[in-house]
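Chain X:
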Amino acid sequence: MGVLRDSDSRWYMREEAGGLILGPYEDGAPACYVDGPSKDSEYELFQEDLDRLAPHIEGAIHRVPAFGEVGVKKVYNGAICYTPDGNPIVGPAWGLKNFWINEGHSFGITAAGGAGWQLAEWIVDGEPTIDMLGVEPRRYGDYCSKSYLKAKNEEAYSHVFITHFPDEERPAARPLRTAPCYDRMKNLGAVFGQKFGWERPNFFATDGMEQKDDWSFRRSKWFNAMEKECKNVKENVGLLDMTAFAKCRIKGPGAEEFLDNLVANKLPKKVGRINLCHALNTKGGVHSEFTIMRESHDSFYLVSAGAFQRLDHDWILKWMPSDGSVQFENLTNSNGVLVVSGPKARELMQRVSKDDFSNENFRWLSAKMVDVGYAPVNAMRVNFVGELGWELHHPIEYQNHIFDKLMEAGQDLGLKPYGIRAMNSLRVEKSYKLVGTELSIEYSPYESGLDRFIHPNKGSFIGLEALNKWREKGFDNKLVTLEVHNPKDADVLGNNPIYENGSVIGRATGGDFGFRIGKSLALGMVKPELANVGQKLKIEILGEKYDATILDESPYDPENNLLRA
């Protein structure tokens, strides 16, 4: 017999030794073994309590009348393993060599084959062949205290049989990690999400909108808020809190040689210059993405995605030489980041600083130490939204001083804060890629459109040999940007199938509505022979197929004139 699941009554049922076994998911189930099981416990069960399960049993009898006729033979009340997001943890431990984890399988029967397969490959070959970010042990950080785990694991158990939305933000154990400007952002209407324990504004509720999230598979209430934020970044100047970025310093006499071997791009040569660099795994797929700034001849400042702090930093540490020639310093918690972006960003910076922000003195992809108000700031002329702007990296204790100076000086320039959801819309218009979606160990960097960041002739680097063999064999995918024509009330989220003549020929990796160009957009992997500008395809959103056309990369400001202005 098949396994029966009833989401409304929150249980599953399956055949068991000629009878039926019912697995209910109750409300308020408490975490056990918070301090670990006793040393002499084996197959330990707790006292049964059928009264707690009465609603689920009644629901099962209603759905399967025979279940109410056979009687209860045995009650099992025992532990089940959970993690804060309900997914297992499969892969290498951080900070250790050759130590592997395969834990937290609340649905073990469904995951056993795949987890064993990929873990075996990981151990034997050093890499898995499937993107395992969803179950990576290093997706968690040291913010996961025992009390945090208790609260989040109980939440994950209670959230099994609910409708999960793509923009869902679970509330337990929050807020936890907050940037100094958290309260200022909140007072300006911020509605927060969390990433790696950090609270980040998703959007800002303004003009009488309730300061509350609104989850949906379709365009929800925050769609209009996001539109205002995107248009203000285009027309004026926006302020974004990116303190959650992972940040570190790599320095020492061997730093340059080590980093040159770690990434596929060339390192910035001049002090103050910035390059976007990708670390490949040994199979030639994209493992990590770093913005690298050269601080001096033997010191480099690295920035990567906040969600992958432990993953990226552990990758660095595991490849670092053990002779002491390279030192690693984690700066994530000590450095804050505020981003100013938009056509009035230069005027704003000139108001809060006595330094020269002219294009002649402060080129795109360069960084300088400047003062903002009275605070020291590493101003990096880069951003992820495709406008004139700077990332302001600063010792975190100066953040509120910097924030206040910017807000005060930018009042008549239209300076307004914006959130991560607006940033996603803006980055999709530029065809900017994210690790875990457009960039993956499953894709060659060439498939992901990173050709200009890969230098196979620069000398040896991790993954080069595998990358060359992959290129000789040929590629199965090509990343494209698509316009989705006339969607009703929903945009591409990712993993949407892409069709040509009724056959699936690819999948979306991400998407959003682009307010600067007024188009619904998708990024996706398709077969290379169909990856031509103007190619007509179809893409599915919530069960309906829509016409889609492949566009040139970066449909907004393809020449980067605004970034370089």
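Chain Y:
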Amino acid sequence: MRDLPVRMARWSAGHPWRAIAGWFLFVVVCLGVGISVGGHPATTEDFRIGEAGRAEAMAAEGGLQQKPVEQILITAKPGTGRLDTAAANAAARDAAGRMARLPEVESVSRPIGSADGTAVRVEVTMRGAELDGDKHVATLVAATARVQAAHPGLRVEETGGPSVSKGVDDLRDRDLSRTEMIALPVTLVTLLVVFGSVSLAVVPMLLALSSIAAAVGLSMLASHVFPDAGVGTNVILLIGMAVGVDYTLFYLKREREERARSGGRLPAAAVVELAAATSGRAVVVSGLAVAVSSATLYLADDVIFSSIATGAIVVTVVAVLSSLTVLPALLAKLGQWAENRRERRIRRGRPVRGTRSESGGRLTRALLRPTGRHPGVTLAVGVLAMLALAAPLLGMKLTDMGRETHPRSIPAMRGYDRLNAAFPDLKAMHQVVVKADPSRRTQVAGALRDLSRRAKHDPRMSGTSELRTSPDGRISLLELPVPHYVSDSAAVASLKTVRHDYVPATVGKLPGAKVAVTGDVARYADYPEHQKQKLPLIIASLLLVTFAMTVWAFRSVVLGVVGVLLNLLSAGAALGLLVLTFQGTWAEGLLGFTSTGTIGSRVPLFLFVILFGLSMDYQVFVISRIREARLAGASTRTAVLDGIGRSAGVVTSAAFVMVTVFASFIPLHIIEMKQMGFALAVAVLLDAFVIRVVILPALMLLLGERTWWPSRPGRTAASAPEPAKVG
């Protein structure tokens, strides 16, 4: 009773109003400082990966880096027949004139007609870095709207990287707002059912939301070390609601159980201390596990995963801090009010309702009955079922989600389709970048023209290539149009041909020249390849962290191995179901998506890391109850069945909250976020209801006393340390 969680709970319960005021002051300060300092968004340089990244760095060195480009497309209105070329050219000149006067615009092309005469376009190059285009594109879109109003007989629209990016961001923001409108009420209703009290149901919600607010402010500060790729806030919302509610739920349920066990004889502060000594410690271990597991994402050497790791770590640490500081104060005040109500009812001669003890529900006892009688059979059936669910994982295809996968509810994407239909050469491009001594400028140009001639006869590439050279003659860049979307096999095959055949046969022969290939297709292809190279290191680190945390928490090597295997089993089953659902077409209408036949390259790694961390919540809580019973003198068999039964209610409630939060991401329009929400929701369901209630107890029953090796808790039940002392 002298470790850190108990000491903090003792002070908080003894000074409740100070603790409550201090917490909300902390939240306000974090948010205020974060807003005043501001965040540091990732730049174009932060996203460079692989050979494509090296080529982009060389191009930027010569001032030839990619610029944000918008296309003003003019076509005939539906039902009006063929395009009036004269009217379209007039509208194009009007658009060009308006765009040229905008301070956000660097240059404007002349009107360009399509080969089939169905469209005219104007290419608008914006000032600034490629990633900054979406911040200033609204002015261009407004100008395009004025051109449309001035030429009502034509269809005038704008598309391009910046407008598509802004449309995706706006759609994601609207989707997330709807997600919050769904997740918050469902979570509140769940907590009302669990506790049967409005005050107790509001506490987890209040602490989760305040933890999210504080984490948002702290993440702005952290972004100056780990730049924010635009996903940090989303991760904070996703993880913050899940762990914030879960940690509070673990603590609250244990406080109620201890109050029921004491029969009202212990004061509220003492009950809170007992809860801190058990569930409070479990929360600390769980939080550390989530934070350390999330930190393995830094090994990906990718700004997006660094942002995910930072958001997950910050919000988890803040959620743990709230459970150690302000939660005991709130519980002490609520407990005191409950005691006062009880005394008033006694004085008035009214019956006093007892607090229900947590001893496991009928469903849990029903599930545990066959496990207790036939653990071997139960284990075999459970493992085989999970392996069957994981089987589709063998056919998983990872790709980066190209621009063409974005929803057509975005206006710029509808224009994107019409632009590519009229000008197929704009679908993608290869960029061959060469860095050489300025004295070799002529040789480099000749070799690149040779490469261009070879590509011109390649049916997978077409159009007019463009050669540009930096003012100092050191950097040269050749653009090769590709009339295929980046995800098409022809585009990917053409990239391999350029890199492995055309480049070695031309500029690759120049002595002392550095050559790299980038472009839309290269970016698309290099990112998943980069993830595949990093995946073994991250998975190995994750397994090692999970093993070490479990051994540290329970002083058992066997439980460390068990934790790793069970987490692999649940993650594999969740990924298998993900592949089965999203690589096929059978669930398109059910879940509202168009299958690409692939899985987003970020999804498996995100799922593995986050799931391994969150699984420790249930692992720590369940095994803590089992070890607690074993330390009290019960046999391992009795401890397992009793611990699972007592913890099943809170695990089920916590899992339902997590599943609600994660499943609320499934209706999102962005397919990668939809896949992440689905995978996490399925993984939590399997982990809570199959792994922790069926497979784990069956395995521990079969292992018996070997479960605790090398420690022997039964021999020193009176003096053995509780799991994972902190402080």
